[in-house]
Amino acid sequence: NDFKWAEIEEYVYQPDRQFDQFKLRFKDGTKFKLYHNNEHDSKDDFRNFLSDFVQTVEQLNNVDDAKLNDIKLGKTIYETSWGLSIAIIAVIMIIGLPIILFVLPHNGTPKLSNYATLGASYIGAIYFIVQVYTHRKKRKEYEHRSK
Fold it and tell me: What is d(CA 103, CA 100) in angstroms, rounded to the nearest whole number?
């Protein structure tokens, strides 16, 4: 399928640990998603594509003084209120799980698997919290630049 630049309403690039997501949303509501495996960075031209795409969007947006047809940078999950809610829950979990595991009375001694589960959940929670923080910081910088 071919598309015209004027048909694009917004794009989102969301980097992640294994797969990056690139998403286009068109003015007619159609969505196009592309996932990129990070392990193939040296074997493909995805980074070049992304750089060229962003550069072209900035050039097109600079031509439109009225800003009526600008292609906007959409929000990643980390920048949405849903992502912020998940991060808050993760912080509560990081604080609350040790209290439940070590402070509250329980029968017998905690199993080693409890510590492993705690550690595994902490890794994911901390990763998500860091992503929310960094993406929201980048969003503020982007919005400040584009004013």
Answer: 6
